[in-house]
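Slide 14.
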Amino acid sequence: MLSILVCTHTYAVSLTYPRAESDSDSRYQYDWEVLRTALEKTSARYGAFEIKQSQHQMPPARVSFEMLRPNSEINLFVRATNAELETSFLPIRIPVDRGLLGYRIFLIRPADQEKFASVKSLDDLRKFSVGQGRGWADVAILTAAQFNVVEGSSYDGLFPMLKLRRFDFLSRSLDEAWREYDERHLEHNFTVEPTLLLYYPLPRYFFVRRDADGERIAKRIEAGMEIMIKDGSLIALFNQYKSDLIKRAGLAQRRILRIPNPKLSAQTPLNRSELWYDPVKGK
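Slide 15: predicted structure.
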């Protein structure tokens, strides 16, 4: 999605989000569609808008650096939250993916399936090393839960690292795992582990700068997302992008292992059940 233009060439708000780390990285398509819809829902009240992506690809550390620069090319990003991010930037505290990111399944080498099928507890799972991207929110969560975490310097590099046995499994959300399997398994020879599900609460938010312009943008996005929750369009988009991948995950056949997320802020809206996907209820 290179650019989305609405109405005229005079925009009440112009948003630039970071280009994904890889040209083959499709993880963010749903997020930007949610953003576009939230802005559309508020056009009558707030005016026309423009959304575009940055010229350059940006890993998470570069995104954070650029967002702290007043005249940076980008003025918004989406990421799994933690207390430090919420101090540095202004979050819109509505989980973009309804908390789906916290439901983790694993990409593994096919030859290791029997080993993972024998896992019955967290202690069993801790015997395996887990791969994650550098700067991902999951690193601190998994480390606090006493997992051996191996960080990769780039998103694309994680898949050959798995193949080369730099770690034993790559922990991914339900939808990420199957999309990455479809896109990359032939090249890197991995499979989706079918018996385990790791859960920790991990909301994914839109973030803007903590300044007057950021507050104005956040107010509009929040208003639009609240409309989407009320009129059902957020769930409709979620189902459009995620439902087939969730079904493929086969949750009923998986053993659920849970760990806490010590990095959640006290403002996390855990008491608003309508914001969170429930795999037991399937909605």
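Speaker note: Confidence is low (pLDDT under 50) at residues 1-8.
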